[in-house]
């Protein structure tokens, strides 16, 4: 019983409480599952009550029974309806109904989330990012960067400019911080060892890898090294804060009102549109500091190269794995003396059987990390934007390699070749025809990947395994253990695309093989409960983007609708239902228009900050706190976090704790 | 000799003088021809010196002489090179060279035009549109529109808001104005008649079409009618200015500084992004008044429907013309009693031979007007935007029906069918192969359409014919004659796409059949001279958009480059030059990146107004004219032009003349 005891608790908390407890991102993330339920519950009921009886009584397959082997599921699918049958009118009507219902739900939910976002931003207490704009590509002139920034904004925003925070090139300092942490960890470890075994003071050889050299007392040695590093850190810190060359051509510009910041973030500043690029500053903990100072041309080249790389990755990722497969042959050719070893049964089965599978698993395991790395190269400024970009990349990968790859057999590369050498009009037909045949596969997929994946998440199997692996090999001190136990955040980069795939499957099969819908529905119910629980009890929130990922969710579901229409069009065109083509062509056009409309209606709520809102908040604040010292409030908000750490052990801990606390406070 | 006497004069004027005389739009328009010269002069020379010798000495066709009939031009083209020959390296190298040169020139010219635009805007004297923002979709609340607007902007732009000008629904008034003009024209005609023939006072029957009813003295009758209409106009005018229901939910909001207007135009005002849409106000004479009050949803539906219509128009325009062709048959079926008439040789040849051709001619003649109408339905606010949209539509039409239509035989509808049923990889190949074969056709096309068209323009043949037709049938008074003689403006909607087609032809054939290049080059030289002359001496400028069409020109030339790469790729893949494919795939990728880079580098100069610039101009003005009464200056700038006409004949003329004069003044 206690196995399911978390469920009622997970359901008790209200949405407002979740927002307060875990941030708006988490609440909006849960709304995706609610959207899934809202879309698929009526769809499932209608489809089971209407389409399945129509399909079952269609009776083509019953006639062919003796010739073709078919599963029972096919009896329930559209394949069971005789070509040219009048029954396809039912399917057509249901497609219209489903599309309109989905669009209606999408519209309501977009409206709802946009409202939640605006309300959240409006009801928040004062936050530094409301007054701050990040300025990139400050042109180098004779003066220092700071003087240039001051002069420019005093001239062009005279009424609202307050000050700015320079961004320092702290790479060297960051390295020292890391080094100190490592040394500190070794010191703690040795002190622990000494406490447990007070007779024997731990010692250490100081030479190469601790293998040779003089043997010294470890605790004394590490203490001395740490104080050395601390001295160097202090020097470096002073150098950075003083040296004008360490200032990057980027700045966080603060204004005396939300209105001033909103104006600066949304307008073009300079004649040369590649200089003085202004944008909203992400909240301090959301900033990815390394990407702040990428020049404009480099950014443009990076994004271009990354989009080519993504294309290559999606379509040609099988090539290195195929190479691993043929490794045995290659080895024999390159190093003939190894032949006897390779020809051993064990080696051969390892090289040809186990290794390629392992390579594929490893590849899929590191893929999200790799995609995140690609997004980082693209130069986005905030962690939230990086996660969204990585999620988009993962979605393309899944769409091509899981969805299309399962329907059209063969690797993505073969598919690409196939699509290039098939008439465009025939592609939806070929895919459409094989859609009903793959229903069983996708049902299994939903169970294995979806249900089991969610179950593994509630049991936290993967983190458990990794934690134990880590505590076996890495963990030496409490600090290490704490690090290893950090549950992390929701992991949008991987979870969003996975979920979007289920939307795609559900919408594609809704009319074709409705028996798949309950599987999708169960996934959404189960995942909703589990993630609600995890968000409330397990995950930490790294940043708050106020639901900035919703437009992506919306447009991916729209894309799923479009794909489902095209595939149904292809499928019905082989079923001698000629009347369906023009009627089905209307649907994607309607969906496209709907998408455009929603975009212009809601998207700006996720990108811009209306002046009306800013003015209102400013006025309220002025009335309630007339003598607020904003300048002091904003002074060091955007100092590089590493530079905020003052040297000295105890203090460092304190500053960190403080930081976390303010982070939590400002969410509430 | 006097035939060419206009030429030296056309070359004498400097660019600065042209800008002063005819506006920046005209000067930028001429720069397109200069860009054509800069791109194609080196291309022509290099191609003639390098590619033609390589092609001529290739010698496949010489071997096949007896079997295939080929023209001499084919000897100079790439068809003459043996498949699998090493000579294709030369073509490959030249493609790279040409692409890089074209991109280099495009970059320089974009830079140049963007600079010209910014300089023009900066060096202009004070203009009303610099201080004005058009606000659309003002939400209806309990108060009147004027109060709502005042309240909203006083609240959200307290430091810079000056006032606003309401927009009135003046449709009824406009009808009265037209009616009065018609009556006035008849009065003038009758007075003229009476002056010439003083013995006989002209009379008129007042009944249906002047055929029946009482016979009255014409001059008295028209005078009385005019005074009646004038009274109604005055009533209507008062009603409009007073009635709050005649105020549309649109306003021209004026600010006390360019900075304030720039901020308001570039930011989002309201929480609901479909309300309070702000944008730069076009200059008063550029406004298309009818489109100001289209609600948001309607706009979204209109644009969507228009894009579907454009698709239908481009691909299915032949259907009604084919219907005309089969008119004879239809008539016989519908009305069998007409059969003897239809079977007459004369009728039959008219119905089947002359009528379809005439229908096609009429269709092509009214096409630009029709496309303009479609753009008007799309709801753009300014005449300049309407012309740009119409030009884009015409370009798509030309690209599909002239360029592709000439290469792939058959109607656009057949082509669409063909493209949908061909593998995508084979399409560039099929088109690429037929490219060299069509060189002769396009050379003729350039001569007939390009050279002759330009020559007709300098002789102003078409306006001459139309003028004489008009003066035969319509012109009755001096006013009519003046109207008929108005030379109009450059006609961007038709000239831009035509020119872009020549860029496409030149770039496509540069490597394939270089002998076509001199024809393109001559077109650009000739057209440059002619349009320079026309702009200086003939055309009137309707509005000034400060070269807002350049981004379109740039992206169409980029599209031409991409098309040329794809076609060359297809062509070479049939020539057994396998090494070329990967090398040629790099080029479109590079071109795309270049386009993206240019877009982010320059496009904002055509859409936004940098705050730096605004601030500088404001400061300068404040220094030079400290006690300027801006409010009075801006008071009636954006009153509907019809309402500016005060009733009464003489005055009306004066107001009009004044308007023209101020228009001319503000250009200088």
From TrEMBL, chains A, B:
Residues covered by the CSC1/OSCA1-like N-terminal transmembrane domain: 2-109
Residue stretches making up the CSC1/OSCA1-like 7TM region domain: 302-572
A Pfam family the protein falls into: PHM7_cyt
Superkingdom to which the source organism belongs: Eukaryota
Name this polypeptide is given: CSC1-like protein
Mode of membrane association: Multi-pass membrane protein
Membrane-spanning ranges: 32-54, 88-107, 304-328, 354-373, 394-419, 501-529, 549-570, 577-594
Lineage summary: Eukaryota, Viridiplantae, Streptophyta, Embryophyta, Tracheophyta
Compartment annotation: Membrane
Domain CSC1/OSCA1-like cytosolic intervals: 130-291
Keyword terms, alphabetized: Ion channel, Ion transport, Membrane, Transmembrane, Transmembrane helix, Transport
GO MF annotations, alphabetized: calcium-activated cation channel activity
Gene Ontology CC: plasma membrane
Keyword Transport: yes
Family: Belongs to the CSC1 (TC 1.A.17) family.
